[in-house]
């Protein structure tokens, strides 16, 4: 590997004098030992590839443009000099008060100097954000990146649109299942239909809350000698410190089949029962009963209240508002991204619920419900980042659409997605409310 | 606290001072003292234990070993058995109470907090700070200027750049502040 | 020894209005102001591996994705993996959590280094899509250029004397939609339902990774574990943003602690320390014992003023003036005697070499969780400026002393 590394650096210097897209093809064979993704990264007119950052509520994905996986995925927190973990980075940010931006500033510095090992001044920045981000947060990020870190330019890329790029598709219903909420937005012919979005507070946070409620009722603690006792209030301190709820969510919770869910709802206990999950908790073991594993995710499909519809209802609501000719297309091109998309059994259940609701409403459009998936690798939690990384390779687009530091210092205007002056809109990338 | 202006009095029944200026608790458990080399002006507090009988321990100047701390040289397992190799502690190393040090090397100007456990064959370079309660796994190496905390211990921060002067001064003042009464 | 080096109890105000302990501040002699990490430009000086302490050149670090080739981390607990022999082959194992490469798909191999990393199985198709996106971009650019130069289009009727026909043809070609298209990904309609065995089998914690392990290996499918290459660390060089002079630079080697350039604040600014723990009693005057130390190699004249603003405790001692001799390495370290035991006045209690002990009287109305005593520190030291005549000016900064409850 050491040999091939030096070989690739030699060929890198040769091909950097090549012109544009043509030489990429020719030099592919000579640089066969370097991974394809790195070649894209090197041949962007000699400029250094941009930094692509997606800041989520729990996890932040960081990397460089042109690479097909993020360099680092870290938690959205950092440890300050007093060794206290700082988590609420966006609490109370105000672009006019520099002191409120200090946590965000330190987080970005942590990203650059601990993980990326690069100086902010050298590379353009692309921030993948949800279109529902409040504008004071966008402006705060702009102040931190352009003024305090002195990066050359910044570009805010909408996460739902970015998620479609790896699939080379123009039309999809992108469904982002994150920590705070589930947000879905249709994209048709490359245009994000901004007026058709829908979000419901059913994400990782809601599932964890339901998991906690179920455990409080039915959790069991097993001692080293095998004796069991019910989970008590005093145990929660250990559970919170060791982040066991997150562990159970990632490793044990699954989305059950629709037939089983229906049976459980009417009080039956369908056979076979899921196995329990045992994990270490301090000096004892925490036993998560099988039905807790099965029921925790049911909160996602609860359609009990009007303003908190289940995920399948949300999708139907969105499609119902779209033009007639798009409806069948959107149902057949669902794209589920986000951390929660990794849960086993989620996609088949979502399909079954959508089809059933379609039959109830006598729709013909739900006949073929399909999902976009990259089957060989589970990339859902960073699909938007991946799209952003591919987008960040287009150096000309980046030059044309980014907000430069000079422009910001002069005008202090950050165009919104619905702003008339927005370059996104000019290129037909975003459709405003009619 | 400003150690330069504080004087702690040690009773001559309990502590003794050697020719090279080391102030040692008389009943400190020191085994194999022929293998232990302390360069001078160090303080070994009450109930600390130095196991020089297993292999050599070498300490620098102005070290401070807190109460009930255990210092033992480490070993490394090979296919044909295990070998012990000597431990090197640098100058101006401040070790607080109740620590267990089984490291291969502790660099100079390091501050080790209360109750820390430094695993076998680990190497801690100069100017580091080990937080109280840290448990350093065996065979780990830490670069200079790291703050090491947690269980298993990881690098969580950086010490200030002027740590060398800061700790060297603190170690010297600490040494001066402990006075054995006549 | 209650708390050694309580560094964060005394905060100094930096020129950018951030508060930091003196040990974390720097002093720019050219601009004669204090600087902290937030108002200096940070640059990466050298990249090195934290475990093998080997210097890696910046270009090489970039190709290797900022990872060391020799050192590996355990995917479960992040500790360093150590190599062991088993017969002819070599395997890696973790001494903390007892994971070894026998539990991953590559059990052992002939060489100690070069353990295979996880690869992205979709790289080829993503590359094709990316190439297509670039073609679209060129197309878009050509269309934008045409709009700019519309007034200059001459048309195809001219002869090719000036080579215009060729240019026209070339431009027309660039505007055509690229014919080669990467295949559009088909959505998957047939999905396997959740099998019973998925949830009735025992949850094997070694097969299903925790979130920490998953985020360390983005390309794993939740159960794959390979030894992870150790991430490299970067060493920083600090530079004053105003005069672009370096404030702190270490020597080349990663394991060195010797500074090529060092402008630490404590060598130019008198350091205030807490002498004894203060006991604050409500309603009344409490003494606060602090000491001031001069670490520089030149004499320092110091004036301490009380700064009674709203949130701080009221200091009854308005002003203290004194001068401190320079810090002398060679002075008798073993001298136990304190030069002046009799207090000079009520405020200056004692002197010892380059430090002075002070007693400030503070009026306490109510005892809060964190009580702050604000002071203004003025000092004069010939080293505070590069030019010797400017060094005789007084410098000033604010200081906050954080006193606990009792």
Automatic annotation (TrEMBL), chain A:
GO terms for biological process: retrograde axonal transport of mitochondrion. It comes from the Eukaryota. Residues 1-17 have a biased composition (Low complexity). It holds the Pfam family Actin. One of its GO terms (cellular component) is axon cytoplasm. InterPro entries: Actin (IPR004000), ATPase_NBD (IPR043129). SUPFAM superfamilies: Actin-like ATPase domain (SSF53067). Residues 1-30 are annotated as: Disordered. Belongs to the actin family. This is Arp-11. It comes from Pristionchus pacificus. The lineage of its organism: Eukaryota, Metazoa, Ecdysozoa, Nematoda, Chromadorea.
TrEMBL record, chain B:
CDD domains: LbH_Dynactin_5. Its main location: cytoplasm. GO terms for cellular component: dynactin complex. Pfam families: DCTN5. The keyword Cytoplasm applies. Belongs to the dynactin subunits 5/6 family. Dynactin subunit 5 subfamily. It is found in: Cytoplasm, Cytoskeleton. It comes from Pristionchus pacificus. Keywords: Cytoplasm, Cytoskeleton. Gene3D superfamilies: Hexapeptide repeat proteins (2.160.10.10). It comes from the Eukaryota. SUPFAM superfamilies: Trimeric LpxA-like enzymes. The keyword Cytoplasm applies. InterPro entries: DCTN5 (IPR047125), Trimer_LpxA-like_sf (IPR011004). PANTHER family: DYNACTIN SUBUNIT 5. The lineage of its organism: Eukaryota, Metazoa, Ecdysozoa, Nematoda, Chromadorea. This is Dynactin subunit 5.
Automatic annotation (TrEMBL), chain C:
InterPro entries: DCTN4 (IPR008603). It is found in: Cytoplasm, Cell cortex; Cytoplasm, Cytoskeleton, Microtubule organizing center, Centrosome; Cytoplasm, Cytoskeleton, Stress fiber; Cytoplasm, Myofibril. Coiled coil: none annotated. GO terms for cellular component: cell cortex; centrosome; dynactin complex; myofibril; stress fiber. Keywords: Acetylation, Coiled coil, Cytoplasm, Cytoskeleton, Isopeptide bond, Phosphoprotein, Ubl conjugation. Pfam families: Dynactin_p62. Subunit of dynactin, a multiprotein complex part of a tripartite complex with dynein and a adapter, such as BICDL1, BICD2 or HOOK3. The dynactin complex is built around ACTR1A/ACTB filament and consists of an actin-related filament composed of a shoulder domain, a pointed end and a barbed end. Its length is defined by its flexible shoulder domain. The soulder is composed of 2 DCTN1 subunits, 4 DCTN2 and 2 DCTN3. The 4 DCNT2 (via N-terminus) bind the ACTR1A filament and act as molecular rulers to determine the length. The pointed end is important for binding dynein-dynactin cargo adapters. Belongs to the dynactin subunit 4 family. This is Dynactin subunit 4. The lineage of its organism: Eukaryota, Metazoa, Ecdysozoa, Nematoda, Chromadorea. The gene is WBGene00276970.
């Amino acid at each position: 590997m050491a040999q091939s590394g030096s070989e690739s650096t030699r060929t890198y210097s040769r091909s950097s004098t090549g012109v544009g897209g043509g030489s990429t093809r020719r030099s592919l064979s000579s640089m066969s030992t370097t991974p394809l993704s790195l070649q894209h990264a090197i041949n962007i007119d000699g400029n250094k590839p941009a930094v692509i950052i997606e800041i989520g509520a729990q996890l932040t994905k960081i990397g460089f443009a042109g690479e097909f996986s993020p360099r680092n995925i870290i938690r959205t927190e950092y440890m300050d000099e007093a060794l206290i973990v700082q988590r609420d980075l966006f609490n109370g940010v105000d672009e006019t008060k520099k002191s409120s931006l200090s946590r965000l500033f330190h987080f970005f510095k942590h990203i650059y100097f601990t993980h990326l090992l690069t100086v902010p001044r050298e590379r353009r920045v692309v921030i993948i954000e949800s279109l529902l981000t409040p504008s004071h947060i966008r402006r705060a990020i702009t102040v931190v990146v352009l003024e305090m870190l002195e990066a050359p330019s910044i570009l805010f890329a909408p996460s739902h649109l970015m998620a479609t790029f790896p699939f080379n598709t123009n039309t999809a219903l992108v469904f982002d299942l994150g920590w705070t909420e589930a947000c879905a937005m249709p994209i048709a012919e490359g245009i994000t239909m901004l007026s058709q979005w829908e979000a419901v507070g059913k994400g990782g946070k809601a599932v964890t809350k339901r998991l906690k409620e179920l455990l409080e009722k039915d959790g069991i603690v097993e001692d080293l000698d095998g004796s069991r006792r019910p989970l008590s209030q005093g145990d929660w301190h250990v559970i919170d410190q060791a982040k066991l709820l997150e562990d159970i969510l990632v490793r044990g919770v699954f989305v059950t089949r629709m037939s089983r869910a229906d049976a459980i709802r009417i009080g039956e206990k369908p056979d076979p029962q899921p196995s329990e999950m045992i994990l270490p908790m301090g000096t004892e073991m925490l036993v998560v009963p099988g039905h807790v594993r099965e029921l925790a995710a049911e909160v996602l499909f609860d359609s009990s209240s009007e303003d908190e519809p289940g995920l399948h209802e949300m999708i139907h609501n969105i499609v119902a508002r779209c033009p007639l000719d798009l409806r069948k297309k959107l149902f057949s091109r669902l794209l589920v991204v986000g951390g929660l998309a990794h849960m086993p059994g989620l996609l088949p259940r979502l399909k079954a619920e959508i089809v059933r609701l379609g039959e109830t409403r006598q729709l013909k459009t739900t006949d073929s419900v399909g999902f976009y998936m990259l089957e060989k690798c589970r990339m859902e939690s960073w699909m938007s980042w991946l799209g952003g990384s591919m987008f960040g390779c287009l150096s000309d687009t980046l030059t044309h659409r980014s907000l430069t530091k000079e422009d910001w210092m002069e005008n202090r205007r950050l165009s919104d997605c619905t702003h008339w002056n927005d370059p996104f809109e000019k290129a037909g990338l975003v459709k405003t409310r009619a | 606290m400003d150690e330069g202006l504080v004087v702690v009095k040690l009773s001559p029944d309990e502590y003794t001072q050697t020719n090279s200026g080391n102030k040692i608790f008389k009943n400190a458990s020191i085994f194999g003292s022929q293998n232990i080399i302390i360069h001078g002006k160090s303080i070994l507090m009450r109930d600390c234990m130095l196991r020089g009988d297993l292999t050599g321990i070498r300490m620098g100047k102005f070290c401070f070993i807190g109460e009930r701390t255990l210092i033992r040289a480490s070993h490394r397992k090979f296919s044909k058995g295990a070998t012990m190799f000597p431990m090197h502690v640098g100058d101006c190393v401040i070790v607080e109470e109740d620590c267990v040090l089984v490291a291969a090397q502790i660099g100079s100007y390091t501050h080790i907090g209360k109750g820390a456990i430094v695993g076998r064959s680990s190497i801690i370079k100069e100017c580091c700070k080990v937080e109280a309660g840290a448990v350093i796994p065996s065979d780990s190496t830490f670069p200079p200027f790291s703050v090491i905390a947690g269980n298993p211990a990881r690098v969580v921060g950086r010490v200030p750049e002027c740590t060398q002067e800061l700790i060297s001064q603190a170690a010297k003042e600490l040494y001066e502040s402990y006075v054995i009464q006549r | 020894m209650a708390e050694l080096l309580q560094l964060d109890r005394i905060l100094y105000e930096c020129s950018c209005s951030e508060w930091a302990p003196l040990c974390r501040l720097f002093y720019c002699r050219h601009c004669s102001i204090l600087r902290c990490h937030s108002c200096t430009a940070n640059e990466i000086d050298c990249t090195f591996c934290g475990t093998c302490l080997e210097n890696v050149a910046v270009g090489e670090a970039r190709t290797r994705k900022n990872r060391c080739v020799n050192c590996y981390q355990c995917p479960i607990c992040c500790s360093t993996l150590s190599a062991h022999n088993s017969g002819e082959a070599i395997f890696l194992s973790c001494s903390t959590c007892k994971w070894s490469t026998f539990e991953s798909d590559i059990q052992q191999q002939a060489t100690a280094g070069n353990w295979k990393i996880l690869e992205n199985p979709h790289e080829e198709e993503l590359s094709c899509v990316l190439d297509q996106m670039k073609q679209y971009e060129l197309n878009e650019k050509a269309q934008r250029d045409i709009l700019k130069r519309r007034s200059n289009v001459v048309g195809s009727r001219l002869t090719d004397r000036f080579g215009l026909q060729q240019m026209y043809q070339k431009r027309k070609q660039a505007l055509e939609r690229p014919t080669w298209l990467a295949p559009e990904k088909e959505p998957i309609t047939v999905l396997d339902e959740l099998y019973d065995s998925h949830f009735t089998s025992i949850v094997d914690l070694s097969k299903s990774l925790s979130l920490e392990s998953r985020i360390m290996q983005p390309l794993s499918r939740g159960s794959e574990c390979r030894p992870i290459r150790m991430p490299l660390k970067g060493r920083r060089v600090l530079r004053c943003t105003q005069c672009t002079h370096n404030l702190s630079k270490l020597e080349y080697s990663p394991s060195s602690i010797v500074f090529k350039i060092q402008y630490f604040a404590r060598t130019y600014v008198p350091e205030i320390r807490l002498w004894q723990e203060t006991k604050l009693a409500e309603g009344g005057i409490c003494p606060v014992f602090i000491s001031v130390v001069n670490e520089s190699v030149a004499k320092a004249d110091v004036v301490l003023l009380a700064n009674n603003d709203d949130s701080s405790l009221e200091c009854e001692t308005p002003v203290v003036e004194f001068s401190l001799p320079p810090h002398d390495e060679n002075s008798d370290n073993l001298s136990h005697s304190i030069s002046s035991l009799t207090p000079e006045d009520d405020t200056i209690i004692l002197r010892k070499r380059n430090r002075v002990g002070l007693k400030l009287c503070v009026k306490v109305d109510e005892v809060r969780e964190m009580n702050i005593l604000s002071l203004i520190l003025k000092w004069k030291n010939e080293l505070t400026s590069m030019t010797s005549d400017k060094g005789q000016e007084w410098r000033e900064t604010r200081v906050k002393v954080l006193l606990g409850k009792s």
